[in-house]
Amino acid sequence: MQKKSNNHAHNGAHNTETTNTSTMESSQLMKLFEDELKDIYWAEKALTKAIPKMIKNATNAELKEALQNHLSETEEQVSRVEQVFELLGKKVVAKKCEAMAGLIKEAEEIMEDCEEGAMRDAGIISAAQKVEHYEIASYGTLRTFAETLNLTDAAELLEATLKEEKAADEKLSEIGTTVVNVEAVHEEIEK
Ligand SMILES: [Fe+2]
Ligand SMILES: [Fe+2]
After folding, report:
1. What percent of the chain is helix, strand and coil (3-state, nearest 5)?
2. What's the predicted TM-score (pTM) here?
3. In this structure, which ligand is nearest to the CA of 75?
């Protein structure tokens, strides 16, 4: 718990009175942790429905495969979040994540607006990477909260998902730079 006081030192001087994490502070952090968990639970469940639409709309075989793999991972991630709720002794609850709802809506618009083929694939990659970045930010925070609250098992589950999100993002970058964007440009030039 000493560690957390050090982190606070970077954020300003509002924690000068206490050097240890107070009970009130940790219960507030627990509340925030739980709220964020409900948010990401909604987001992951929404993604299990959104990713299949991306797969259907994608043309590039490598992209389809990467999305398919990440769909399986996402299903596993839903169950990991459920396990974290269980570790906390809390009921499994989803709370609508407006940010993810917006990112999914944007992805749907991109798929409608872009012509099928390399252009739409490029759009799908762009939308999917925004999703991954949101998840990376969320799981990074959740893992750090869990560590601060000494919830070691929860932190491990969250770290496992964080790694998958990072790998998915990297895979999309790779597909985007090596295959899709080149094809998309050529398609445009040929018109
Ligand atoms: Fe995820
Ligand atoms: Fe993801």
Report:
1. 85, 0, 15
2. 0.84
3. 1
